[in-house]
Amino acid sequence: MKNTAENRLKQRQYCIDYYNLTMTEHPEIDALIGRGTHNNRPIAIAYTGTKGKPDFCNYFNSEEHRETYINKFIEEQKEKLKYKAERKAKKQAPAIHVLPYKPGDIIYNSWGYDQTNVDFYQVTRCTKASVFIRPIKAEYSDRSAGCDMAAYVIPVKDSFCGEEIRKKIQWYEGNAYIKFKFGGCSRWQEGDEIYCSWYA
Questions:
Q1: How far, in Å, are 29, 54, 94, 123, 160 from residue 58 at the CA level?
Q2: 48-71: per-residue pLDDT in tens?
Q3: What is the SS3 string spanning 19-38?
Q4: What are the distances in angstroms from CA 162 to CA 34, 108, 134, 138?
Q5: How far is residue 55's CA from residue 168's CA, in Å, rounded to a whole number?
Q6: Those residues with Cβ within 8 angstroms of residue 21's Cβ, 6 or more apart along the chain or in another chain
Q7: CB 11: neighbour CB atoms within 10 A?
Q8: What end-to-end distance do the CA atoms of the chain give, in Å?
Q9: Per residue in 164-194, is it b (16+ CB within 10 Å) or e — as a string?
Q10: In this structure, are residues 31 and 54 in contact, taking their beta carbons and an 8 Å threshold?
Q11: Quick one: pLDDT at residue 29?
């Protein structure tokens, strides 16, 4: 049988007739819910949308149990529809792209497995699609890291030690970020002391 709307309705009607169900429409959740008695037991069945197969088809110990189950199903469907509507609205809403970088800003890339490496970069220029950065030197701060193989470092602004690098700006829900091959990228703020180590 081909999966067409007509065939799905036929499949649905067959079950309704077989169990001799009384159907009730629930437009708030785009569903059809049936109640009846089969083999001397309360039964309920539900279809959402144009499905041919039921969302559930269950026997119950009592009519009270059946109604509790149906009410729970209705509330769950309402939450699903609400969630879908919110996601759709979020996707359709225009993203507000505010570029957080400007020339002179300092970012750093912290990476490593057995040790924590820190590389500092200074933003040199920006376009709508890219941010250009250059590596800069770092120096140790006076803060103790508690051992001889770790320290805190701070960047030395304008102390360039490498060529300019172009990074494509990535966007997620209106927020900009740039990627490095390893580790993450963070924005350095005045006064920050960044932990590094050389255990390996």
A1: 19, 10, 44, 63, 71
A2: 999 999 999 999 999 999 999 999
A3: HCCEEEEEHHHCEEEEEEEE
A4: 72, 14, 6, 13
A5: 46
A6: 15, 34, 35, 36, 43, 45
A7: 16
A8: 64
A9: eeebebeeeeeeeebebeebebeebeeeeeb
A10: no
A11: 95
Q: Quote the tokens at residue 16.
A: 């309704």
Which residue is it, tokens 């932990």?
195
What is the dihedral angle through the alpha carbons of 61, 62, 63, 64, rounded to the nearest 10 degrees?
A: -110
Is 107 within 8 Å of 186 (Cβ atoms)?
yes
Q: Which two tokens stand for residue 76?
A: 């769950």
Q: What is the mean pLDDT of each run of 10 residues along the chain (200 residues)?
A: 85 93 95 95 95 94 95 95 87 65 92 88 91 94 85 94 91 78 84 84
| pTM score | 0.52
Burial class (CB in 10 A: 0-12, 13-18, 19+), 97: exposed
In Å, how far from its chain's centre is CA 162?
A: 36
Domain ranges of the chain: 5-92, 106-197
